[in-house]
Amino acid sequence: MVVDSFGAGGARDAAAFGDEGADTMGHIAQATPGWKIPVLMKLGLGSLRPLAHQTPDPAPVGRYGFLNEASAGKDTMTGHWEMMGLKIDTPFQTFGHFPPALIEALERETGRRVIGNRPASGTQILEELAPEEIATGHMIVYTSADSVLQICGNEETFGLQELYRCCEIARRLTMKPEWKVGRVIARPYVGKKPGEFVRTANRRDYALKPFGHTVLDSLKDAGFEVISVGKIRDIFDGEGITEAIHSDSSVQGMEQTIDLTKRDFTGLVFTNLVDFDAKWGHRRNVPGYAREVEAFDERLGELMQALRPDDLLLVTADHGNDPTWTGTDHTRERVPLLAWSPSMKQGGPLPEQDTFAAIGRLVAENFGVPVPEMAELKTQPAIEL
Ligand SMILES: O=P(O)(O)O[C@H]1O[C@H](CO)[C@@H](O)[C@H]1O
Ligand SMILES: [Mn+2]
Ligand SMILES: [Mn+2]
């Protein structure tokens, strides 16, 4: 279960990313006296690291540790791919502005003029440019510090299918090596005038295929179920996934995960909860982020009640997104790993890991499929649960 962007601070290489001192959960805790996260505390989050205004549980039931990211990136794809055993040494390409030749090709093939074409916050650029898009039928294209080409489309005037069509064209064009972005993202929204624009859950991500074999592929090949909840399917472009469940929100993603405990199957449920990142982290909204964690914590308790003795719960994050930080982008941080099973005898610390792939190794070992061949993994103290 990936709490998207719930970083734990303290990455050794944070300075190289301009993020020294960034600490998503630490800064939220500081700003939030009375933050109610009893289940996370029971699992051992407060024992992993001090959190302002929180008292560590005297006898945490979970195992808890830090994971460092080995790859050269702090985006969602890099984080998730590394979890499943791929190290990304060359960061995905980012752009300040997309080159004229790409924009011209996009305009020619979609039949629409491009406006924007710069890095922006997705909600701010709607305030600025959505009225023009609605009035003229031009198309807002923007990017960020991530390797993304994002296209906005008003669901009523532009149309959802038309937005997807334009994104498919953009994806095809950006497969060209010099234009290659990690993801093209469709950003549908509703609303007629500034102050009213709201993005909808019909977002769609067109990602590159993972650059190699992942633990998800190993599981699928060995006949296990790999059930995606939320945007996991998109992040892996469907590779290694046997079933995908779309979520409209992170709370719904939790409910869908809880529902899956009632089903009989053997395999992995891989859940991504994106609201923490998309609705609050990038928006630098601390109270919103804090409340979303509270809503998560409540359902995490329900999920734990529903698990069976041979289930294993892993809670982690894919990067940081400190809502108190400058700018609107992700932050390079360590992420937490919280592990719990009803059959676990006792909680306690886990050795800190040099790579998120420690998760892939745990999952692979759990199901008896091949462990990823990543150099960083071989020198790591084993996580034994
Ligand atoms: O500002 P919005 O559109 O939410 O963009 C955010 O979402 C994209 C994908 O994670 C990244 O580009 C990030 O900056
Ligand atoms: Mn993410
Ligand atoms: Mn993000």
UniProtKB/TrEMBL annotation:
Pfam families referenced in this protein's UniProt entry, alphabetically: Metalloenzyme
Cofactors required = Mn(2+)
Q: Per UniProt, which keywords does this protein have?
A: Cytoplasm, Isomerase, Manganese, Metal-binding, Nucleotidyltransferase, Transferase
Q: Which reaction does it catalyse?
A: 2-deoxy-alpha-D-ribose 1-phosphate = 2-deoxy-D-ribose 5-phosphate; alpha-D-ribose 1-phosphate = D-ribose 5-phosphate
**Protein name (database record):** Phosphopentomutase
Q: Which InterPro entries match?
A: Alkaline_phosphatase_core_sf, DeoB, Metalloenzyme, Phosphopentomutase_DeoB_cap_sf
Q: What is its main location?
A: cytoplasm
**Which Gene Ontology cellular component terms are annotated?**
cytosol
Q: What function is annotated for this protein?
A: Isomerase that catalyzes the conversion of deoxy-ribose 1-phosphate (dRib-1-P) and ribose 1-phosphate (Rib-1-P) to deoxy-ribose 5-phosphate (dRib-5-P) and ribose 5-phosphate (Rib-5-P), respectively.
Q: Which GO terms describe its biological process?
A: 2-deoxyribose 1-phosphate catabolic process; 5-phosphoribose 1-diphosphate biosynthetic process; metabolic compound salvage; nucleotide metabolic process
Gene that produces this protein: deoB
Binding-site residues for Mn(2+) 1, renumbered to this chain: 4, 318-319
PANTHER family in the record? PHOSPHOPENTOMUTASE
Which segments constitute the Metalloenzyme domain? 1-369
Tell me the HAMAP family matching this sequence. Answer: Phosphopentomut
Annotated residues that bind Mn(2+) 2 are located at: 277, 282, 330
Report the EC number(s), separated by commas if there are several: 5.4.2.7
GO molecular function, a single term = phosphopentomutase activity
Note how many cofactor molecules are bound and how.
Binds 2 manganese ions.
